[in-house]
Design brief:
The protein has 3 helices and 6 strands. By secondary structure, the protein is an alpha+beta fold. It has a single domain, classed as endopeptidase domain like (from Nostoc punctiforme) (endopeptidase fold (from Nostoc punctiforme), Alpha-Beta Complex). The chain has a 6-stranded antiparallel beta sheet.
Length: about 150
Amino acid sequence: MDITAYKLAQRFGGTTEVAGQMANPQIMAFLHADAKWPEDDAVPWCSGFVNYVCKLLGVPRSGSLRARSWLEVGVPITLEEAKVGWDVVIFNRGGSPDPTIIDGPGHVGFYAGTDEHGIIILGGNQSDTVKLSHYPKKDILGVRRLYDE
């Protein structure tokens, strides 16, 4: 059975933060795969989720909890070239729209398609959950192909 990063990421759908002082152990595993400093799941973990999925598959990953770090992984492609299962999309989240600024605020997730509402992303830390969410095309910093079929 061939499995893509997207298909594996789907298996974590519904994983959500725990309110209060406890933390979801699965989210902590996402985070601690690349950084030991997070003490709970109340930190940005979208990149931790994408890294965790890619680590399990042995495909290229950023190894950083910074969403924009994904702008340095894989091969840049256009949104029109993006394929479900193979690509990640990196978004600006209120910082500079300059994609060369890696330490700015951002968001990253697996490309799941487009519709009249924008780009559909399967990602972590989307309303504190692994789920599908819409993002505006105007906020895209880059689309990256991590590996080929």
